[in-house]
Structures are given as C-alpha cells and as structure tokens.
Design goal:
This protein is of the alpha/beta class. The protein folds into 3 domains: 162 residues, Ubiquitin-like (UB roll), CATH 3.10.20.600; 163 residues, NADH-ubiquinone oxidoreductase 51kDa subunit (Rossmann fold); 69 residues, no CATH class. It contains 14 helices and 17 strands. The strands form 4 sheets. It has a 6-stranded mixed sheet, sandwiched between helices. Strands 2-8-7-4 form a 4-stranded antiparallel sheet, with no helix packed on it. The longest helix is centred in the last third of the chain and has 19 residues. The two termini are 42 Å apart. The structure holds iron/sulfur cluster (2 copies). One iron/sulfur cluster (SF4) binds next to helix 10. One iron/sulfur cluster binds next to helix 10.
Length: 443
C-alpha cells in the first residue's frame, strides 16, 4: 500500500532509536504522588477527599459538575497528606491532592472487571469513559466522552485512531501498539459503538513496521477496522493533517474534525477506554518516554499519574550529564521546565533531558525573510507575520491572518534558520484573540 500524507510539514531527525525497541517498564508506585485537580481541558475538579483520608487505587478524588471536565482518581493507595496548590508542567500552580503511598496498591471497590461489555449501549460506554476520567493521551488532554458526542446537527461517519507519533524522541505509542495491539483494537471497537460508526482507520507512520504489523494482525478479523501506513513527516499526527492524509477531507478554517464527520483519538486513549470498560480501571497511569542525551537509561515507562518527574528520572538511572533543557512532551510542541518537582499528568507523553547541542537549536535571532516557515506550515498560514503581529501586540492583524487556525505543531519554528520562537508568539496571539472574543460574547 502507498503511504499517505499531507502538504507541508518537515522531516525532523527522529531520535527514537534509544527507546523504540525497548519494552515498556512498569515503575513501582512512588512514595508520594501529587495529583492535580486540573490536568485536562475544561473546568477544574473540586476535591472529594480531605487531608487524613485513606484512599485506594482508582478511587475518585476530584470531580466537577461542569459540562466539560474530567474527574481525577487516586493512582496509589495510602493517605491524603495535603490539598494545596502545587507547580505543574504548564508553569502554573494548580490545586492538587498529595497522597503518601502505603505501597499496598489496594484497589477501590469500584474497580472490577465488567462481564456485560457486549450489552453496553453507546451512552453507557460514554458514561464509563467520563467516570474513568479519560482524556486525550496524545498531549491535548481533551475529555474523551465530550469528544465522542457530536454537537446538534452534526454526526460522525468515521473514527480515526492516531498511531503516527510524529514528535521526535517519543515512542510511547509505538511501544503500546507493539505490546498491546489487541487492547487498542478492543478500544477502537468501543469507540465505534460509542459513536454509532462502522468505519475506523488506524494511521501509523511507516517507520514503525512492527507496530503496523501488530495492529494489522490484531484488527484483521474485524473488517470495519483498517491500518493505514503514513509517510514519515511531522506533523503527520495532527488531527487535520491525519484526516487529510487518510480520507482526503479538509477540515474548514476555524472548524473541527466533526465538521467533516470524523472523530480522532490517540491509540493510548483507545487502550485507556478498553481498560475502563473491560477492567473498570480509571485513568491512573500512562506510558511516558524518557529520552534525550542527558538521561542515563532512556526508555518508556508505565508511570502512576502524580509521580514527580524527578522520581521518574531517578528510576531511569538519573542524569548522565547536566541537562541544558528539560522538556515535558516532545521537542516540537512540548514545554520547557524550570524544575523537575512537577508531577506526571494524564497529558505527559514524554520527559526529555536535552544536552547543550540539542537545546542550542532553540536560541532566537532576527528573521531573515527566507520564507521557510510559510513553506513548512501545513495549515497554509504565514507564521512570520502572525508572530510579528503578536510580538507587536497587533492581535487584530494576527486574527486577520487566521492565527486561530494554527495547530501549534511547531514546524515553522523547527525550519526557521533564525530559530525564532514563532509558536510561542502565535500561541500568545491565539489566547489573546480567544479572550477578546469571549469578552465580546462572540464564539
Ligand atoms: S503557524 Fe502554526 S500550524 Fe503553521 S507551522 Fe507554525 S505552529 Fe504549525
Ligand atoms: S523561517 Fe524564520 S527567518 Fe525564515 S521567514 Fe520564517 S521567521 Fe523569518
């Protein structure tokens, strides 16, 4: 089959060789977890526990009555020793539940396998997904139950599972597809049922032949599910690019995948859906890629949500050299950190410890008007102008240049010979434009 792709994008050095062939290692529960009550798109949760309470693995410890939210659960059993604002990967402090582990891993009574999965209806599956606190595990952390319900007047005809994992260094999804292909396919079937759709595609970049083979074998007996090999190009895994590559459908400017009848979920999210529905297990752990030239033992680890990044680094042998930069996520879309005293959250796909040379690619210089950022932009935007307008505070002009269509893929920054911080500037423009629209009551 000919691998599919999209216009624009970049060919980055992938740096995945240190982790992509090693099996996922499950880390033991840490002595203490810090579980933020807001680690998703939508309203923050209110705590359902108080200091001194004993909690069990999978017990709901935070929830909200807001329409768009995701409950959070204890990832270890033990005692609640604090509920206070704690630093987060995003750079702000968030109200968090601190639990001291008793190392017993006692399961909450609600966590039990479900015998009647085949009889569940779409709404029941979505309710389980909501209660399990499942969010998009590709990094966006958008609540999955919400995504599975189309707005009035719209409908889905296709489910796409994103297994492209195009960010350099990251290989967590790759390993998951190799090691748990049947669970991902089970998750895909549940997503089909939840959306009332009969067609699912699993898009995987062709530099992961073992994952393509494993997923093809696992999905082979279900003719509703097809694996689609994709060309190796960043940002192949961005929703709009994925939909174009697989279906040839273009999401309209300012639109969403549902506008072309599609819902996209990450393969890790599908596995989490399977765990919630079949095993009754909420989202309390995830696979994280730990990589970069400054980590002693690069690998993929299965980590309890709330584990401090410094404990993850220690479990991977510690530093092999002092890192010049610590990034949560991938190098293209991730966020640089000032401390490792921050927890792994549901959206943490990677912990990168970059050396001087790797990090040096990020220092900015003046624009030389080469136009490479325009060429690389898969959304056909003018990154240099949007970023310049944002830096000058001319947000109306940035809006006129369709800043809101930016998917924050980072391609423009990646190809820029002057290493300009284009994405950061465009992000600023987007949040300012959105805030202004909200203030004026516009959508
Ligand atoms: S402008 Fe936005 S969508 Fe275009 S390359 Fe830059 S980050 Fe990606
Ligand atoms: S790639 Fe960088 S230097 Fe070239 S036009 Fe864009 S912002 Fe300017």
């Amino acid at each position: 089959m000919v691998a599919k792709t999209f216009r624009g994008g970049v060919h980055a050095h992938y740096h995945k060789e240190d982790t992509a062939t090693k099996p996922i290692r499950k880390l033991p529960p840490p002595a203490r977890v810090v579980i933020p009550l807001h680690q998703h798109t939508g309203a923050p949760c209110e705590p359902l526990v108080k200091v001194g309470d004993e909690v069990k693995v999978g017990q709901k410890i935070g929830d909200s009555s807001a329409r768009l939210t995701a409950p959070v659960h204890a990832s270890v059993s033990g005692k609640v020793v604090g509920i206070s604002p704690q630093p987060q990967p995003g750079g702000r402090d968030v109200l968090s539940v601190v639990i001291e582990s008793d190392s017993n891993e006692t399961l909450d009574e609600h966590v039990e396998p479900r015998a009647d999965v085949a009889s569940l209806g779409a709404d029941e599956i979505k309710a389980i997904i909501r209660e399990a606190g499942i969010v998009g595990l590709g990094g966006a952390a958008f609540p999955t139950y919400f995504k599975l319900t189309p707005p009035p007047g719209k409908s889905f005809d296709t489910v796409i599972l994103n297994g492209s994992e195009c960010e350099p260094y990251l290989s967590a999804d790759h390993r998951l597809m190799v090691e748990r292909p049947r669970d991902i396919v089970d998750g895909a079937r549940l997503l089909l049922k939840a959306t009332g759709v009969n067609r699912a595609y699993i898009g995987i970049e062709e530099n992961k032949p073992d994952a393509i083979e494993a997923m093809s074998n696992a999905g082979g007996e279900d003719d509703r599910i097809s694996v689609v090999p994709l060309k190796v190009k960043y940002p192949q895994g961005a929703e709009k690019q994925l939909i174009w590559a697989i279906l040839g459908r273009e999401v309209p400017s300012g639109g969403l995948p549902v506008d072309v009848g599609v819902v996209v979920n990450n393969v890790g999210t599908a596995a989490a859906v399977r765990d919630a529905v079949f095993a009754g297990m909420p989202l309390v752990e995830r696979v994280v890629t730990v990589a970069g030239s400054c980590i002693a033992e690069p690998q993929n680890v299965l980590v309890k949500v709330g584990t401090l990044v410094r404990d993850v680094i220690e479990a991977c042998g510690g530093y092999s050299a002092p890192p010049a930069k610590v990034i949560i996520g991938g190098p293209m879309m991730g966020v640089a950190q000032f401390t490792t005293d921050i927890p792994v959250t549901k959206g943490t796909s990677g912990v990168l410890l970059l050396g001087k040379e790797e990090a040096a690619q990020i220092e900015p210089m003046p624009c030389v008007r080469c136009g490479k950022c325009v060429e690389a932009c898969s959304m056909r935007l003018m990154p240099l102008w949007i970023a310049s307008y944002a830096e000058a505070g001319r947000f109306d002009d940035a809006e006129r240049m369709n800043a809101l269509d930016c998917i924050e893929c980072g391609c423009c920054s990646f190809v820029c010979p002057s290493r300009r911080r284009l994405v950061q500037a465009i992000r600023l423009a987007k949040s300012e434009i959105t805030a202004r629209r909200r203030r004026s009551g516009a959508k």
